[in-house]
Records
---
Amino acid sequence: MQKARLTFWQLWNISFGFFGVQIAYSLQSANISRIFATLGADPHSLSFFWILPPLMGMVVQPLVGKYSDRTWCRFGRRIPYLFLGSLIAIAVMCLLPNAGNFSFTFAGAMIFGLVALMLLDTSINMAMQPFKMLVGDMVNEEQKGQAYSIQSFLCNAGSLVGYIFPFLFAWIGIANTAPEGQIPDTVKYSFYIGAFILILCVLFTTFKVKEMPPKEYAEFHGIDPDRKEEKAPSMFTLLKNAPSAFWTVGIVQFFCWAAFLYMWTYTNGAIADTVWGTTDVTSEGYQTAGNWVGILFAVQAVGSVLWALVIPKFRNIKTAYVVSLLVGAVGFASVFFIHDQYLLFISFLLIGVAWAAMLAVPFTLLTNSLSGDHIGTYLGLFNGTICLPQIVAAACGGLVLKLVGGAQVSMFIVAGVLLVLGAMSVYFVKEKKKA
């Protein structure tokens, strides 16, 4: 069967729900440190709260991949998992920012927040992974680059919306401070509106995208539809037989995602200290810095969208990868030296360059080296190269912070060094298709 070309709008519809999922993810990444710091967490323990999200992703995404590979019902193969994950995410998004409003003790509020965070990231991962799998399932190799570019655009557009919500709500007069131990209304309303947009986007994808039935899927991917059903290989067997791109790109991913974990964890505390001159989490300056984090992350998303248009201009995708990561490293390091909130726009535009490459290049390299048989499982397993570095970085965050002097802004120098190591590791990536 000749692999059909899809129209632009068919490619768009496959990934549109990613817009809503990414709003939820951006609200989590921009506000988790702020939420737990406001609840009373010590800065040296902040990174520990970031262990749960990637840990849950590392568990959930391979399972979603494995079982959705073997699922077929009238709603499709991947969409049932997308829909279930989104429903759980919506419920948790309404509960998490209220961790300080249920008359809990400090310990109780922390436990509630951790459980809610665990459920939120589990559900976001369950909703996010099917979009990557849908591209692998339904898009021919020639169009995969375009499909993942569309997904990257929607990812960054969703991030942009989620990041600016708290700043926007503060601008229209919603309270940006709250009693000690409680989360400001700007953050709460951001999560509520994000949940509403998420369900609308997921419903759009559910009704617009019709997945291939099993026979058509087999023909599209060159699988014999009449072969006897064999016992599915274990994940360990699949890892053993994974193409070299799986492992070599994974090395690059390790350094990149560790760097961004430190950005998400320490940006609020860093700029509150260097720009607003405060480390008091109850102060107006700290909460204003929290809103500005969203603006800076939105600037990063804009930089990522713009650079995503540049990446295809490179003749060699590995060269694009290296250049992008080195530019991002400069952006990270520059944060340490800048004390003006507007000059930080330059830093985060440069960081967005690295982010654009991280979203598009690894999945292009990987999916082009895979057959269609176990693509969902492999994409789920590949998520370990995103989750594991975040877990390691989060577990070591407090120690690294002490080693660099205790100032949260110093972690941006660490992040810059990590991206340089990632760029150097691109040398080991071999663009070779699996037989």
Note: The chain is about 70% helix and 0% strand.
---
Amino acid sequence: MRKKNLSKILILGAIAILGIIVLQLYWLAMTWNIKNHEFYERVNISLRIVAEKMADKTDVVLPKKDLIKQLSSNAFLVNYNDVIVPDILEDLLIREMDRVVPNFKFEYAVYDCHSNDLKYGNCCMQDGLDKENLFKKLPDLDEYTYYFIVRFPDKNLFLLYNLKLFVLLGLFAIIVVFAYLYAIKSIYRQRKLSELQKDFVDNMTHEFKTPLTSIKLASEVIGNNDIVNSDPRLKKYSSIITQQSEKLTSHIERLLDLIRSDEKFKLKQEEIDLVETVNNVIAGMEHYLNHQNVELKFTYPEKKVLIIADKYHFSNVLYNIIENGVKYNTKDNKKININIEKNENKCKLSIEDNGIGIAKENLNNIFKKFFRVQSGDIHDVKGFGLGLYYVKNIINLHNWTISVRSKEDSGTTFIININKTK
């Protein structure tokens, strides 16, 4: 993925997550205010009912205004304006509060402004709490003579419990943020490692190609020497040096192609003759195939099969598949069958071998980068697991499809479906 595209995706993702968090915080604040107001209304109504019932029992006339005053977010004052009977008050408070909010703890205190002292107090819905611990700092309100104060110490917890869904969503959002940050860190670290890998391979291939060019030139000079040509042994050694240097150069070029195939480079597509291209690849591998004692059979239509393809990369695809068919074959009579079938404007190219085959559980992984089957005689074959990864990338860039049929000890068949033929 390009750096610019990656940055865009990360920025859009960050904006989306930030938007979700802001909306959740807004909804949480709005819901908190609504619940807080609802709590205030319920408590206000309940305390008014308690005051009215207590006044009916004691024949007290309640003040027409300022009956209830909110002292803080969780404390309310009720201006009774007469002597309060604690037992009646507590009984009414417990009944009314249990009706409005069941099992909700509250504290109350009765205050006499003449003595400026706490006359009576208790904490309901909780055992073992001394009344001396209640309302250590009472408000000094000169305008009231007799009143009682009710406080709800667990009010915020009560509201949070009612907002548990929003709290859970908030926690989930926090987890998503941390997961997103971790993903960003992992992506950038992976990208950095990938760039380091590419730089390393690029530098190494450059360092290899320079001495290889010198070796190749030197071997050609030696090969053209009359003294060397007159000695069969020296001529053979000179030929081996030339062949191996060319082979190593070819491997380096293919490695560079693999690196470039990770990026969406543009193919140099042109109209080519499919049969002729396959024959050229076979001719280029003739020495290798003869040395490996391979019997190769090529079947193709009589008419030309013209396709649009990148000749260089397509040839490398054929080379990789044919070479794999030879490498992963332990039989003395190695066989490679190449067949082209043309149907209207499409054709099917199949490459079949009689090698060791691939187990069913590994078929879905053979095109993955660096994947190598770890069983059988495959340990004896040198490689990095990049060949078929390169093949798959090139096929995808051509908008073709490739499939594989294989069975252990029964060989493997690669099928390339090519469209837009003539």
Note: Residues 3-162 form one domain.
